[in-house]
Write a sequence for this structure.
């Protein structure tokens, strides 16, 4: 028993390290591609970096519903990753010296957070109605998947158009950050890093299933807490690196953009899950996580509108404190369900 537990945790740590190292390389080469193609900062964080750093969630999800047949792990990973990303905004606020993070970033992030609420709300609604297998579907695919795909496209287009309207002045001349890399090299290295992330993502749900078995925990708890932490390592690395460079908007847009893409993964996984609509074959406690994402996204919107300047103990504002409290509350509730 102890050997099995040790092996499961060792495998989890190795997989997490692989995702972290490859994810950090992935973000560097993705940023280099962005610089050399002349694409804008917030847009890069929302689309390019958010997409590549969400590759672990994508591959873990596809592997969970096809090879491992663990749909609870895939949904737990998706929603848990969204919660963890929103909690990271509070961590970034704590790491920001001087003025609060919410005072330094664009109000345009309200659009991303708002669309995140809409998409996650659709998932939560169908989780509530899907318990009895009453999810409307076409074949084995739920109609909610079509809605998620359409709304994600609308969200991306709307945010892009908003950023274009806000960009009134020409870009400033800046020194090249990656003079040692050509565009071709950046693309090749980015692809190689992606392969490592893909491989680790395929392995992760099997590790999650082993952990649930040897520890006696529910798969929904494993997916939402441990697997989600592992698959959000790239987002963590990228956002902290962007914050240290002073790219506050890129740091936050990476996290909110990852959440939009993560919820979109529900639709992708639904296409691969052939036993019926995915949301009618998972545990009901995922609803708790879905509405935690909704509440935390709303808190971020309030922070972006109100822009709190005062910090408790000179460290973080009430908005960030609320985000941290919601993360802890969700983890505690799922722990109770998981046991």
């Amino acid at each position: 028993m102890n050997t099995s537990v040790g092996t499961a945790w060792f495998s989890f740590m190795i997989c997490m390290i692989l995702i972290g190292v490859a994810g950090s390389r992935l973000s560097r080469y993705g940023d280099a591609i962005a610089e050399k193609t002349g694409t804008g900062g917030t847009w890069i964080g929302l689309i390019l970096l958010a997409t590549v750093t969400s590759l672990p969630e994508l591959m873990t999800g596809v592997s969970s519903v096809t090879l491992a047949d663990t749909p609870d792990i895939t949904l737990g990973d998706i929603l848990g990753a969204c919660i963890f990303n929103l909690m990271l905004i509070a961590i970034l606020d704590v790491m920001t010296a001087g003025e609060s993070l919410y005072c330094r970033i664009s109000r345009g992030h309200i659009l991303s957070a708002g669309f995140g609420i809409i998409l996650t709300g659709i998932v939560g609604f169908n989780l509530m109605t899907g318990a009895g297998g009453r999810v409307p579907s076409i074949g084995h695919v739920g109609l909610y998947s079509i809605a998620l795909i359409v709304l994600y496209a609308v969200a991306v287009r709307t945010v892009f158009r908003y950023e274009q309207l806000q960009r009134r002045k020409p870009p400033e001349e800046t020194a090249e950050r990656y003079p040692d890399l050509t565009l071709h090299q950046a693309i090749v290295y980015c692809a190689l890093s992606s392969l490592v992330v893909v491989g680790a993502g395929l392995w992760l749900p099997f590790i999650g299933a082993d952990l649930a078995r040897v520890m006696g925990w529910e798969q929904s708890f494993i997916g939402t807490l441990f697997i989600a932490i592992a698959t959000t390592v790239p987002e963590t690395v990228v956002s902290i690196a962007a914050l240290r460079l002073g790219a506050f908007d890129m740091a936050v847009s990476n996290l909110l953009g990852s959440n939009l893409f993560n919820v979109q993964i529900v639709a992708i996984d639904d296409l691969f899950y052939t036993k019926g609509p995915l949301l009618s074959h998972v545990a009901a406690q995922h609803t708790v996580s879905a509405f935690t994402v909704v509440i935390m996204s709303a808190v971020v919107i309030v922070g972006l509108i109100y822009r709190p300047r005062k910090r408790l103990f000179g460290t973080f504002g009430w908005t960030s404190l609320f985000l941290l409290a919601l993360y802890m509350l969700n983890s505690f509730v799922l722990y109770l369900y998981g046991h």
